């Protein structure tokens, strides 16, 4: 079989996987569809823009440290839930050096991926106050965190960032906060999927309102420093904008998955302010032995979920942080490959009549990085995902990320290889004839 694939063939694969529309398909389902197609087209690679898997080798310093720890017999020993001191100390040094934040090592705790950190946090947050039962998410956002709330039966609402930036931001956020229904707000900076970055001014607003209404801010740093418009690894101003400047009501989630290309080992660090760690919530006594937020979170919740975090991965994490803290920029420089591939692929999409959907970052051009969003003025997102799949290009819809737009898709550049850049051009050149068939209704997608 060769590209472009027929629309009937795509419909058949959708049926096989049990997917009604590509627009509603989860990343997992898109990956399943891609795997089937890849097996059936001979020697013609799919160009994969779907899953956010790091496309770089793991940071070797971590691998070496982990092997050494394993050879020393660490695999036999249960890790302490607080984490090993080296990893905690290096996290604390990192925050001081690259965020100008004073946070003691005793407030940094390893977790099995930052997703475990958010999962544990949602459990405790939903129990701190009988009225404050909900989490507020800044959307478009990372779908799995909302899935976590659903799994836990924790209610949540979303605010649509692109619609409320600028003058409206404070008023709208305040409207949500003053309902008294939210225990916490969560955002990632840069944002998955749009790569928009909350500005220092916006973070100040969030911080001040969180103080006023006693709302905990979860700052998800899955893409720390990957807003390549600034170099946040100099150890000097400008430091990366962060909520920690404006409130002491925070939880930070720092992931090794993207910055160190270490996603497979599921290692991250949750840190919280001393104020929040010690803060007592009487309502917690309905569930926990401890009424302090920190102890309920670490000693009871994290301990219940996994009794600590993979021991050898903590050694890797400590070594990788230490290396950056000591000035090694190898892994940061390697990340620039994503910036380069975002620039190159974006230009090819623009050449074929696509446009970037969320391209205005408060008047600044968007950074090039891990993700960006595109649309085609003549196609809705279902037609777009279909047409791209027909020419061997995979992506995910923005609908599953909570976008209010019905026309956009997310492009993740991490998996594209240098030699596929030209191929992308060739593949997109086939799209016009497919697009015309949609426009003239010559082809209609069969929604099952
Ligand atoms: C915004 C965001 N947060 C968290 C994660 C997951 O991080 P981890 O691998 O540390 O669980 C991702 C992964 O794609 C993400 O995009």
Description of the structure:
- The protein is an alpha/beta fold.
- It folds into two domains: 7-52 and 331-439, Aspartate Aminotransferase, domain 1 (Alpha-Beta Complex); 60-325, Type I PLP-dependent aspartate aminotransferase-like (Major domain) (Aspartate Aminotransferase, domain 2, 3-Layer(aba) Sandwich).
- It has 16 helices and 15 strands.
- A seven-stranded mixed β-sheet has the order 2-8-7-6-5-3-4, sandwiched between helices. A four-stranded antiparallel β-sheet has the order 9-12-15-14, with helices on one face. A two-stranded parallel sheet has the order 1-13.
- Strand 10 (360-361) and strand 11 (364-365) form a beta hairpin.
- Helix 4 packs parallel to helix 12 and helix 5 (114-125) crosses helix 11 (293-306).
- The longest helix has 22 residues, at 330-351.
- The structure holds pyridoxal-5'-phosphate.
- Residues 52, 113-115, 142, 188, 192, 220, 222, 255, 257, 263, 268 line the site of pyridoxal-5'-phosphate.
- The site of pyridoxal-5'-phosphate has 13 residues, from helix 5.
How would you sum up this structure in a few lines?
This protein has 448 residues and is of the alpha/beta class. The protein is built from 16 helices and 15 strands. α5 (114-125) packs across α6 and α8 runs parallel beside α9 (200-213).
The CATH architecture classification of the largest domain is 3-Layer(aba) Sandwich
Mean pLDDT across every amino acid position: 94
Helix content: 40-55%
- What's the CATH class of the largest domain, please? Alpha Beta
Strand content: 5-15%
Ligands (ions, cofactors included):
pyridoxal-5'-phosphate
Number of strands: 15
Total domain count: 2
Biggest sheet, spatial arrangement of strands: 2-8-7-6-5-3-4
The unreliable regions are: none
Most strands sheet: 7 strands, mixed
């Amino acid at each position: 079989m060769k590209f472009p694939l027929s629309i009937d063939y795509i419909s058949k694969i959708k049926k096989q996987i049990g997917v009604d529309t590509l627009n509603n398909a989860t990343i997992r389902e898109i990956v399943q569809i891609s795997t089937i197609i890849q097996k059936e087209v001979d020697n013609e690679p799919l160009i994969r823009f779907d899953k956010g898997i790091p496309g770089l080798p793991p940071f070797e310093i971590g691998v070496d440290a982990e092997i050494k720890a394993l050879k020393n017999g660490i695999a036999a020993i249960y890790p302490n839930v607080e984490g090993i001191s080296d990893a905690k100390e290096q996290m604390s040094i990192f925050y001081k050096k690259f965020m100008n934040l004073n946070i003691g090592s005793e407030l940094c705790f390893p977790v099995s991926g930052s997703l475990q950190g958010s999962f544990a946090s949602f459990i405790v947050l939903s129990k701190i106050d009988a009225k404050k039962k909900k989490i507020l998410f800044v959307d478009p956002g990372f779908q799995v965190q909302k899935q976590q709330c659903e799994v836990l039966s924790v209610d949540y609402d979303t605010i649509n960032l692109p619609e409320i930036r600028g003058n409206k931001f404070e008023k709208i956020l305040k409207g949500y906060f003053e309902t008294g229904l939210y225990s916490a707000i969560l955002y990632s900076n840069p944002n998955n999927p749009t790569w928009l970055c909350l500005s220092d001014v916006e973070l100040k607003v969030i911080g001040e309102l969180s103080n006023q209404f006693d709302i905990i801010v979860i700052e998800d740093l899955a893409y720390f420093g990957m807003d390549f418009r600034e170099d946040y690894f100099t150890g000097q101003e400008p430091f990366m904008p962060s909520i920690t400047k404006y409130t002491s009501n925070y939880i930070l989630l720092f992931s090794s998955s993207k910055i160190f290309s270490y996603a497979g080992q599921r290692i991250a660090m949750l840190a919280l302010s001393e104020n929040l760690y010690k803060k007592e919530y009487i309502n917690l006594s309905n569930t926990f032995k401890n009424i302090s937020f920190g102890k309920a979170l670490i000693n009871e919740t994290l301990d219940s979920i996994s009794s600590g975090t993979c021991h050898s991965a903590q050694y890797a994490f400590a070594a990788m942080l230490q290396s950056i803290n000591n000035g090694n920029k190898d892994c940061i420089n390697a990340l620039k490959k994503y910036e380069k591939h975002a620039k190159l692929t974006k230009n090819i999409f623009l050449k074929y009549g696509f446009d970037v959907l969320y391209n205005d970052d408060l008047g600044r051009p968007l950074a090039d990085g891990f993700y960006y969003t595109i649309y085609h003025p003549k196609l809705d997102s279902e037609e777009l995902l279909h047409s791209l799949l027909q020419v061997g290009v995979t992506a995910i819809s923005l609908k599953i990320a909570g976008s209010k737009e019905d026309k956009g898709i997310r492009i993740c550049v991490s998996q594209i290889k240098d030699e596929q850049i030209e191929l992308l051009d060739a593949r997109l050149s086939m799209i016009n004839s497919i697009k015309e068939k949609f426009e003239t209704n010559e082809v209609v997608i069969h929604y099952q």
